[in-house]
Hints:
The protein is α/β, with parallel strands linked by helices. It is globular and about 55 Å long. α1 (59-74) crosses α2. It has a 7-stranded mixed sheet, with helices on both faces. Strands 1-2-3-4-5 form a 5-stranded antiparallel sheet, covered by helices on one side. The longest helix is centred in the first third of the chain and has 16 residues, at 59-74. It has 10 helices and 12 strands. The chain has helices at 59-74, 89-95, 110-119, 121-124, 140-146, 171-179, 198-208, 246-256, 265-270, 276-281, and strands at residues 4-7, 17-28, 33-39, 43-48, 51-55, 79-84, 102-107, 133-137, 151-157, 181-190, 214-220, 230-236. The mean pLDDT is 95.
Amino acid sequence: MDEKWIAETLYPDYGQRFRILRTLVTRTTPFQELAIHETAAFGRMLTLDGVCQTTERDEFFYHEMMTHLPILAHGEARKVLIVGGGDGGILEEALKHRTVEKATMVEIDGAVIELSREWLPSICGRAFHDPRTELIVGDGIAFVAETAERYDVILVDSTDPMGAAEPLFGPAFYAQCRRCLAPRGILVTQNGVPFLQPDEFSGTYRHLEPLFPDAGFYFVPVPTYVGGMMALAWASLDPASRQVDGATLAARFREAAIATNYYSPEIHAAAFALPPYLAKLIG
Length: 283
């Protein structure tokens, strides 16, 4: 029997490919080409415009670190805003925190939500049915510019800076995110793989550093985000949030009583270590 493989389209000179057992669904939306495949190595995989967004097998690396780290660093997060994140993985992790009273998710492409609910329940769980969820199908850029709400944590789970997602990496969007943060608020954004996307890394820092008292990055290894460690941009209105001691983090983690596969208080502290080659990129 002939094997079917698909090659990712993110980089012109480097990439990865997946052996596909079957394609579950494809759809052309007003924003992108969406597909969900059953892969041999990673279980079900969501791709947008040919780029892997998440898989059943390795989603926990990204979703846990993007969500639990800022919520536990804050310590009193009640309201969380998620921009993007249509697969529901970030939403599910945020709602594991009993202290979170409301999680607002703004996703521009309703088809991502619809098909993730149908085909990726192992990633989103029951998050879309949780009464604390406020689900908005719309433009996240317009939402942060117009909302009167203030959030303790904002998580930007976007695609790479191409097409409709490109403005999510610009200074005007970051300034509006700052406007909608509550005192001590924390912003975390997906920031690609800096070894292969160095301009994205340095550009984000250049935009965030003038806006926030504390700006930087922390890192997570995600197997299907190839090319080295993935960077998550960190921006906080309270520099103390990054300096929470290990004992306090451990106590908060025990109190949260959340089972994790990658996040731990020890990983939390270590994730902020900046390798010299990346320190050079931000001067």
